[in-house]
Specification:
386 residues; 13 helices; mainly alpha; two-stranded antiparallel ribbon
Length: 386
């Protein structure tokens, strides 16, 4: 038992990474019987109802009055559009037209785009070594896209052509950029709204935007082809890649810190590619794997630069105080939705959040701010690619 307790955090993180790595393949299996937009419709309908229940329970337990500031309405709408409405359209339709590995790899570049955007907006200074990592990562992405999988690949029920795959990759990449904005916008909102509030408001806005796009697909869906297995996948994609895994993820952050936990993110594209290869028989070419390795290498370099810069600042801070007081305490943040469970999350410095925390987005991204948002850097919430 003691040995299990010693490794329970890593076992929990391994479970989370496996779920997030498997999820895109599970989505594509559902696409065999449900059109992507029909799948999105029912999934987000359940998510919205669940978020409302969580908010009501939170309000009852906390006794807090729920209010929306008029000046925040525009930001909430933008957050709902970028994090749920438009992002989910681009992500799911993109996934239906490309491979699991390509989708997982491109979504994993969220931290790179986060750093680029905050630098362009002059929200923070980017270390030269970070720029080196970004350049390396983007070169890997460019190589990956230019190769366009030199051979057709077998997708779900049909063969994906090179044109289809390139189309799906570009949709995913645009979605990733929108999701990056979602994180940056939510960083401002998270200081004024609790995680359950932020999740419910933005999720309902995003769902309202999705309905006009999804309704024609729902009405034209051939329901005779939908089996109980596919219906079972929908609640699975709500509970496992989102609520269950994010609870474990944030518990692990509270125990080990953001820097340790986010290292597991680098395994998600690898697992996604392997699962797609084994289950869907998607091809993994040497060019794909080489480009993917370069992208991950670029993110590691940029992450190393952030960690080194933070360590340097901490050293200078320690040197500036008297020896007896040479202890630098990092703030502890955030309450996770009380309806799900309250936990303390260690929050590293602003720069750590801007890059390291942003890596907590799985490929999926119907992420509940009720779980990660309180710690957010450029995530909205790190707040979450199930």
């Amino acid at each position: 038992m003691s040995r299990f307790r010693r490794y329970n955090i890593d076992l929990g993180l391994a479970f989370v990474v496996l779920v997030w790595g498997f999820s895109p393949t599970v989505f594509k299996i559902a696409f065999r019987e449900l059109q992507p937009l029909t799948f999105i419709f029912f999934r987000f309908l359940i998510l919205s109802l669940l978020s409302i229940v969580v908010l009501l329970v939170y309000r009852r337990r906390s006794g807090r009055t729920l209010t929306i500031r008029r000046q925040d309405i525009g930001l909430l709408i933008l957050s709902g559009l970028c994090g749920y409405g438009l992002y989910q359209l681009l992500y799911m339709v993109g996934l239906a037209h490309t491979t699991v590995f390509a989708s997982a790899l491109l979504v994993a570049t969220v931290p790179l785009w986060s750093v680029i955007i905050v630098a362009l907006l002059r929200m923070e200074r980017v270390h030269p070594a970070q720029w080196l990592g970004i350049v390396i990562g983007l070169l890997g992405v460019a190589w990956f896209l230019s190769s366009v999988h030199s051979q057709p690949e077998v997708g779900v029920g049909h063969t994906l052509t090179q044109g289809e795959i390139l189309f799906g990759d570009l949709l995913t990449l645009v979605g990733v950029m929108l999701f990056t904005l979602y994180g940056i916008v939510n960083k401002r909102l998270a200081v004024r709204y609790s995680p359950p509030e932020l999740m419910c408001y933005t999720l309902c806005i995003g769902t309202a935007v999705l309905i006009p796009f999804c309704l024609p697909s729902v009405l034209s869906q051939n329901w005779s082809t939908v089996t109980w297995r596919t219906w079972a996948i929908i609640p699975y994609t709500v509970l496992f890649p989102i609520y269950l895994t994010y609870s474990i993820w944030n518990w692990a952050i509270g125990k080990r810190g953001v820097g340790y936990v986010t290292l597991y993110n680098y395994a998600i594209p690898v697992i996604g590619g392997l699962v797609g290869f084994l289950v869907l028989r998607e091809a993994l070419t040497p060019v794909q794997m080489g480009a993917g390795a370069i992208v991950l290498c670029g993110m590691l370099v940029a992450r190393w630069a952030v960690a080194r810069n933070i360590a340097s600042r901490k050293s200078r801070a320690v040197a500036a105080v008297a020896p007896a007081d040479a202890t630098v305490a990092l703030p502890v943040v955030a309450e996770i939705a009380e309806a799900i469970g309250t936990m303390a999350v260690s929050e590293e410095t602003e720069e750590t959040q801007q890059f390291a925390v942003s890596q907590t987005f799985p490929g999926d991204s119907a992420l509940p701010e009720s779980i990660p948002a309180a710690m957010t850097g450029p995530d909205q919430a790190p707040s979450s690619s199930g």
